[in-house]
């Protein structure tokens, strides 16, 4: 089974500012768990709805998993799904696109577009 080569990190405005300063060490939940949580495109809307409900001023960053190499591990989480986890910091140089969190008419989270 082939795995996604891009995954997404949902960030608050303050966390996005930290990432723009060169690297992101993780949200409080990431630091507590020992890795940075990511979601695939297919998992992103459910992640936002479950973990970021009622929050505003959120951002989504697209992460090149191949550039992170062995720091990425796919591990079972919610409902037995495999999620990408970064063991270490998230450097800005592996972020291929980012933008404010927006939703399509059907309520799904719109993926950030580079350029």
Q: Which short descriptors sum up this protein?
A:
115 residues, 4 helices, 25% helix
Task: Describe this protein's structure.
The chain is of the alpha+beta class and 115 residues long. It is built from 4 helices and 8 strands. The strands form 3 sheets. The protein has a 3-stranded antiparallel beta sheet with strand order 1-4-8. Strands 3-6-5 form a 3-stranded antiparallel beta sheet. It has a two-stranded antiparallel sheet with strand order 2-7. The chain starts with 5 loop residues before the first strand and ends in a 15-residue tail after the last strand. 25% of the residues are buried. The model has no long low-confidence stretch (mean pLDDT 94).
